Amino acid sequence: MPKKLSMNLAFVALTLGLASAHGEPPASSPTKQTHYDPRNFDGVWHLAEGGKFGPTAEKDGVKYVVYPFTPEYQAIYDKRLADAAAGNPYQAAGTTCLPSGAIRLLTGGGPPLEIFHTPKKIAILKENGGWSRIYLNRDHLPADDLYPMFYGDSIGHWEGNTLVVDTISLGGANNIDGTAPHSAAAHLVQRISRPTFDTLRVEATLEDPKALQHPVTATAILKPIPDQDFTESFCNNERNVRDSNGKQTVKFDK
Amino acid sequence: MTHLSTTTGIRERIFSSILLLVLASVAVLAAPPAALAHHSFAMFDANRTLTTTATVKEFQWSSPHTWLELIVLGEDKTDKPLSLELTTISGLMRNGWKPGTLKPGDRVTVTYHPMRDGTPAGQLVQAVTEDGRTLKGQ
User: Fold this and answer.
1) Distance CA B25, CA B104 (A)
2) Which residues of B touch A241 (CB under 8 A)?
3) Is the distance from CB of B30 to CB of B56 less than 8 angstroms?
4) ipTM greater than 0.85, yes or no?
């Protein structure tokens, strides 16, 4: 082995050894990589912190997020919270193996998601909820092409290293967080950036002039899951059921 | 006299038990089938935690959630079923589980939140295997 190469290898080994001895990951670790493309979000991610669109509270044993609802939508929310306290929580779309929707995709937690880039779109695969597509090459579809969707009509553009995603035509999932309602006028804007190799930051603003008295915001931090492939997740064994009286129970026979 | 009272009390308890059993059986037969699917954990009592040792009957590596079918020894010394719900497949994998982590016949000590209505099911908190591994269920 040439002497120079040998010395370089020794230096690298020493550097890695010192870093490990101090409890620091080696420079090649996903948590310490410094050279990366901040406009590339490829990879498997999960919610690590944040993501709520308001302060939390608890009533009758039910934890919930406080929203500035209009009276009409506050009444809907109150009913759902009371039902949850009675043991019969609201059945959001996600609870029946349908997608949980755009508002919860990046900020709602749960199973991981994977992001893919193509020249014309960025696609986000939710492990248990299908695909969301962010179109980079067009404006929103004409109004007569829109219909209530789980992930809505999403378009994106770059502002520096921040991807700004604008989503309308929500209504398939019809909830903000699994319980809180929104109307068909909901409009979601997300500013997504990758400030470090292992951090995806999402700043989301939700406005809904029919349901909310003013827009609400959430900040979510996502972290990579570098060593895990996606698993198949198709509902083949749903045993959390409600009986015809609306009571939660368990299905015992397969 | 004391003996007579005791005997009467036993008879009353036996009669009450039989009556309850009959009523419960009628209720089960008359109960409507489960309808709408829902992933909620509202049926589990998160404020109660039980621990028992059981034998694995089946490990259901499935979606949306995984399930552990167990056999436990009841107070009457007969085998009783116990169904415990775990998290998603990907959630379990992050906790170190694999599809074959538990096999029929394995003995495990399980800690779980039981059903509010007393039916033999619950939400698994953790399982400890015979070789001492502790695996989180959520």
Assistant:
1) 29
2) 34-38
3) no
4) no
Domain span including residue B57? 50-136
In the Cβ-directed half-sphere of A5, how many Cα atoms lie within 13 Å? 2
- Asked whether residue B80 is assigned to any structural domain, the reply reads yes
B109: left (phi over 0), alpha (psi -120 to 50) or beta: beta
Count of beta carbons in the 10 Å neighbourhood of residue A114: 17
CATH number at residue B131: 2.40.50.140
A252·B121 Cβ contact <8 A: yes
**B39 inside domain:** no
Q: Could you give phi then psi for residue A120, rounded to 5 degrees? A: -105, -15
Q: Of residues A36 and A230, which shows the higher confidence score?
A: A36
| Cβ–Cβ contact B128 with A under 8 A | no
pLDDT digits (tens, 9 = 90+) for B77-135: 999 999 999 999 988 988 899 999 999 999 999 999 999 889 999 999 999 999 999 99
CB B61 within 8 A of CB B101: no
